Amino acid sequence: MRGVIFDMDGVLVLSEPFIADAAIRMFAEKGYQVREEEFRPFIGMGEDRFIGGVAEQRGIALDPARDKARTYEIYAEIVRGRLPIVPGAREFVRACRDKGFLLAVASGADRVKVDANLRELGLPASTFDAVIDGTRVARKKPAPDIFLLACDALSLAPSECLVIEDAVSGVEAAKAAGTRCLALTTSFDAAALSAADWCAPDFAHVPRAALDW
C-alpha cells in the first residue's frame, strides 16, 4: 500500500443532508416540493445524477448547468460554519501523511463544492497530492474512472491504493478500479457495503489491517 484516495461527501464531511437540503430549496424555487429520501438512490453519483435522478422520477424539466450551479450556491451558504466533520477525519489524513502515503481526494462533485468542503474541513487542497473532481471524468461512479484517474495522478497502480468510500456506488467503483476499499457506514449500513474489504463507522475505528498490507 502506497496511496490513500478519499471520497469527499460522507467520508471526510457529513454533507449529504446539506446537499439534499440545497437541492430541495432549488426545486422549491422552481415550484416543486421534493423530499430528502428521494435523493437517497443517487448518493455518491455526483450532483448531475443526484439532482437529475430526482428530476427524472418526477418528470421535472431541468436546466442542468444552471440548476446545479444554483444548488451549489445554496449549499455554500448553508454549510458555512455548520458542516460536520466525520470523527477522526483530520487526524486520519495527517496520520496517513506521517506514514508516507500519497494522498488524493476523488469526488464526484464539481470543484466548487469540493473546495467549499475542504475549506470547512480545515484541510486545504495543498494537503493532498491530487484533487480530482467530478468534472474530470465523463463516466460517474459506479464506473471506476475517477479512481483510475486518481491513481494515475499519484503515479500509482490501483493495486497499491486504498479507496475510502461511504456509498454503494463508490464501493463498486473502487473494486472495479482494482483498488482495495474501506467503507465508512456514514450513509449506508455494513450489509449494503459488504463488497468493501473493510468497514468502519468512522476514522476513529478503522481496522488496523486496512492500513497494514
Overview of this protein structure:
This protein is globular. α1 (16-29) packs across α3 and α3 packs parallel to α5 (111-121). It has a 6-stranded parallel beta sheet with strand order 3-2-1-4-5-6, with helices on both faces. The protein has 7 helices and 6 strands, in the order βααααβαβαβαββ. It has 2 domains: 3-14 and 83-210, HAD superfamily/HAD-like (Rossmann fold, 3-Layer(aba) Sandwich); 16-79. With 213 residues, it is an alpha/beta fold. The model has no long low-confidence stretch (mean pLDDT 95).
Compact description:
The chain has helices at residues 16-29, 47-58, 64-79, 89-98, 111-121, 145-154, 168-177, and strands at residues 3-6, 102-106, 130-132, 161-165, 180-184, 198-200. It is of the alpha/beta class and 213 residues long.
**Strand fraction band?**
5-15%
Strand count, sense and barrel status of the largest sheet are: 6 strands, parallel
The helix/strand class is alpha/beta
Q: Number of folding domains?
A: 2
Distance between the termini: 6 Å
Number of helices: 7
The name of the CATH architecture of the largest domain is 3-Layer(aba) Sandwich
Chain-wise SSE layout:
Elements: E1 3-6, H1 16-29, H2 47-58, H3 64-79, H4 89-98, E2 102-106, H5 111-121, E3 130-132, H6 145-154, E4 161-165, H7 168-177, E5 180-184, E6 198-200
Parallel strand pairs: 1-2, 1-4, 2-3, 4-5, 5-6
Helix pairs in contact: 1-3, 3-5
Structural descriptors:
213 residues, alpha/beta, Rossmann fold, 2 domains, six-stranded parallel sheet, 7 helices, 6 strands, 39% helix, globular
